[in-house]
Amino acid sequence: MDIALLPYQKPSIVESSSRPSTDVKILQDRHLISRSYSLNTRKCRAHASGISCSSVEHGLHPKPKPKPQKVGYDVVKKEANFEHTKGYSSGLCGQIEKLVLCKRYRDALELFEILEIECQYDVHVGKSTYDALVDACISLKSIRGVKRVFGYMVNSGFEPDLYLRNRVLLMHVKCGMMIDARVLFDEMPERNLVSWNTIMAGLVDCGDYMDAFRLFLVMWEEQSEASSRTFATMMRASAGLETIFPGQQLHACAIKMDVSQDIFVSCALIDMYSKCGSIEDAQCVFDVMPEKTTVGWNTIIAGYALHGYSEEALDLYYEMQDSGVKMDHFTFSMIVRICTRLASLEHAKQAHAGLVRHGFGQDIVANTALVDFYSKWGRIEDARNLFEKMHLKNVISWNALIAGYGNHGRGLEALELFNRMISERMTPNHVTFLAVLSACSYSGLSDQGWEIFESMGTDFKVKPRAMHYACMIELLGREGLLDEAFALIRDAPFKPTVNMWAALLTACRVHKNLELGKFAAEKIYGMEPEKLSNYVVLLNIYNSCGKREEAASVFHTLKKKGLRMLPACTWIDVKKQQHMFISGDKSKSHVQIIRNLKKLMLKIADHGYVPKKNSLLPDVDEQQMSLYHSEKLAVSYGLINTTSSTPLHLVQSHRICDDCHLAVKLMAKATGRVIVVRDASRFHRFEDGKCSCGDYW
């Protein structure tokens, strides 16, 4: 799940009719202090000028004053100035604390800068003011604010106690200043458990898991104590390393110290076991939780989804619903993503309704997940309507819709949305460019694609990555410019990746360029020698060119490596139920499906269907007749069990073969249905005899 940072907004302060608001009071205080300062200054000047004028008027020479008296006068003057400065500064400190209390952090830091400039370290800033300034810096993630506050503390000679030292350490950690934080921690004259927890949490947050474990061991040797927060932090470190052994050791220690049943520790354990590959242990921890909270449910559901157990995750969601535990926006965001994987439109619509019903209708994370779902499953208009209703959008929201238009073969709309994104001052990232370049590739918008690709570094300071080069190779491949595509790979400023060679190999398959295809395939073999689909693409090239001997040699290589073609599977969601079909399945339960399929094949023959026999499925045993391919069986089942206006949504374990692609395209035309297929290679939306991929996949 993608997480979005919301822009800072100043909270409004409700004014009362009976007394001035906090805002007004602060301004009044500031005005009075400033006015008092002006009056005092004028009085001092008037008094001094009065004495001087009197002496001149009487024609008298001023009596020489002894040196001690002059010094005494200066001391009195300095004391007066000090008393004035003290009153002035204490007023500013009070205002700073009030501003932080009202969550006006930026104003508080600006007022602190005024204090810093006017008083220049002569003012005693108290513990409570520093505490408030720490809150302001953390809330704004202001590195500049951290440096000014800490610099003033050091230069003014203020000696913080342990509590404030821990707060200053936390301020550095939360603002990502880990080098400075580590120096502060090492120089602390005294540390407690809060100090250790703060620095270890900072190390884990920035991904320095090994250093966090080293500090944990040092802490354990020094004081042999830990809190529930300590264990929760170190569980995250173990999850980050994806190493289960230290997590198990921490679990044992937590049990011995009687904190394993703590809510935070339990949730951290579930997350750790899930990310380390042991969903069974995660389930055991969840089962013994004394109180199953929203976070606990979310964590175990996320664990199952992480390992691809989407149906089990969906079942847990309904268990959570039945248990009466309150759901939050993270719950609904996860379920929508799970539905995206399962192609379950009905479950996603229910989650959408629940999101609105529970008051999260404007949550940016959940709405972005819904835009992504609708975009990926053929409902691009629903995605656009939801996108336009979002009050807040982040770059992920824009990326999801741009990618959706690209997948639907609507490159011009994707470009229009990209230009609107720029005009609204939203900064694109590398994913944005991947989405818009893919859209140009799918729609054959060569000139626009090259213009955007070249502008990445010059206009947006985004360095093109291998994924962007792969898009441009595919763009050239669609136009049949294979030599130019090969030159782009050869001249890339980094070592070519598998995806770049795979894009060239696909282009060679489509345009039947045997020699270059063989060269690209050999490059891929060297990088991924155990990936079956790479060999099968080359097999398809040889078959389509009638090179039977070369195809036989590839089969021999597969056999020698022990790679076996597996039956292809297709899933279809009908009435909230997942149904799976396997290629070549002629079981009795499929008699009606096969009978309907035969009628359908006769029907599409009238629309020009001629079986293609020179292509193989990747990862698939092609011993079966093409009639019994899993996607054809799934489409037949969907047509039997749904109404004529219902779109069909299929998920495949493999890349759809040429014959099935043509057949499904004509089935959509003959029946007037929309058929959406997400295969291992690409998104396909079949409607009225056309496919969104442009017959290039």
Short overview:
The protein is mainly α and 697 residues long. It is 66% helix and 4% strand. A hairpin with a 4-residue loop joins β4 and β5.
How many strand elements? 6
Beta-strand percentage?
under 5%
Chain-averaged pLDDT: 83
Query: What is the count of helical runs?
Result: 32
Main sheet: which strands, in order across? 2-1-3-4-5-6
Indicate the structural class.
mainly alpha
Low-pLDDT segments: 1-85, 616-624
Rg, rounded, reads 35 Å
For the largest beta-sheet, the strand count, sense and barrel status come to: 6 strands, mixed
Report on the structure:
- The chain has a six-stranded mixed beta sheet with strand order 2-1-3-4-5-6.
- Strand 5 (683-687) and strand 6 (690-691) form a beta hairpin.
- The two termini are 27 Å apart.
- Helix 3 runs parallel beside helix 5 (143-155), helix 16 (329-342) packs antiparallel against helix 17 and helix 22 packs antiparallel against helix 23 (446-459).
- By secondary structure, the chain is mainly alpha-helical.
- The model is unreliable at 1-85 and 616-624 (pLDDT under 50).
- It has helices spanning 22-57, 67-101, 105-119, 127-140, 143-155, 162-174, 178-187, 193-205, 209-223, 228-241, 244-256, 263-275, 279-287, 294-306, 310-323, 329-342, 345-357, 364-376, 380-389, 395-407, 411-423, 430-443, 446-459, 466-478, 482-490, 498-511, 514-527, 532-544, 548-561, 591-605, 630-641, 658-671; strands at 569-574, 577-582, 648-652, 675-678, 683-687, 690-691.
